[in-house]
Amino acid sequence: MKKRVRNVMLSALFLTGSLMMTEQASAAKVGPEEWTEYRMNSENNPVYNSSFDEEIQDVIETNNQIRSTPVIVGNNAYIGNHESGDLYSYNLVEGTMNWEAKAPNWVHSEMIYAEDNLFVGFGNRYFKENGTRGTEDSGVLSLNPETGETRWKFETDGEVMPTPAFHDGTVYIVAGDRHLYAVDAESGEEEWNLELGHVMSMSSPTIEDGMLYVGGGAPTPYTFTAVDLEKEEISWQTEFPEAYAGLDDVPPVIYEDSVITTALEGEEDDNPTHMIYAMNTDNGEMKWKDSLGQGEMVKNNKSGAPMIYEDQVFVASPITKSYYAYNAADGEQNWKYEANVSKAPPVAEDGTVYFTDKEGFVYAFDTETYELLGSKELGGVLAPSGPVLMNGTLIVGSQDSNVYALPTSDVRGSSDASFFWTSPLGITLFAATALLAVVLLFILRKRTARKDPRRVGK
């Protein structure tokens, strides 16, 4: 009898433990609980891991181009369309659409998530006669994440194509009307605004330690701004007299006491020089800068957005058609890889960095040896939407109107594309091979000449 009772108790304990483990597994989510700014953090490296262990492989179809990074919160992906302004919530686990909504204009902003609210900017890139960027409706919507219902609408004179940032109960918005707006997240009422003096095109602000950092364009000189959010005032501004594009397109990153961004210098539309800069977060003084190189001008999104991973800056250049790794502390270039035009920021985890390009490819590289680990063709133009990594799943939006979700192992294990590896000195494997072939041919001819009897005695 005692033995039977003990067995029953052990069985009950085993069943309880199994149920608890099942509940814990089912409670694990694909993504984080919130997403408060462009690409989730001030390093522009959206990576999240939990005990979620299901494999996700999906193609999410939408109605129009996707040019903003899909936001993953819980099990849902929040997606916005370029020209149509369509907005979506999609359950990644069930593979079903939760709801569809619509913004009044283009959507290039991410749909950030904070305190059970979604916030998304809208507007277009066309200019008004007074120099304001953005025609028709411009502003930010707050949506119910469960239903897609609009909770409030905040209107601005200029476009809000940059992603807003949430901090301490306030939504911070930079716009094409040269202003920064602070808006109460619950009510949508303006708390204060600040004239920054420059048009914000696509430079989504990043917030670190109560400071907001953003790049500005017209009027010249292009200017980078730091705002003290508690004091509600500009802390410093750094002018870039040689820059004429890109600074207002690039969401900056923070590394320790540096804020890092990129821009184009030189003669407009004539083989621009793509530059990368690191400024002191306290005063805006230049800590280091370097040229990524020169190349042909591209349309829209002219300057690649940087990403920080393990003391390195990874960045793609649409001008030089190359990928780079820099030492974040001193600006020493560690690596360069020639590829296609790429405008999106990469993402990195577990010693692997993933880049995407305009031809629809994803590439995986070792972050220490820079070896190409794999390449995968997805489709469309993977720009300027950058990839995210959620529990081993790579998720990226495309201008073919799809969002692609696939295990990172699928990228590392594929070889759909191959380009020339480039050393830190900028010498491609192809060039090195060609040079070696020329040298060998020269040696071979010399040896042949020595053996030619007709040359004896001459």
TrEMBL record:
UniProt superkingdom: Bacteria
Residues passing through the membrane, by range: 419-444
InterPro entries per UniProt: PQQ_b-propeller_rpt, PQQ_rpt_dom, Quinoprotein_ADH-like_sf, WD40/YVTN_repeat-like_dom_sf
Residue ranges of domain Pyrrolo-quinoline quinone repeat in the record: 206-407
Signal peptide extent: 1-27
Keywords assigned: Membrane, Signal, Transmembrane, Transmembrane helix
Pfam families: PQQ_2
PANTHER family according to UniProt: CELL SURFACE PROTEIN, OUTER MEMBRANE PROTEIN ASSEMBLY FACTOR BAMB
Protein name, as recorded: Pyrrolo-quinoline quinone repeat domain-containing protein
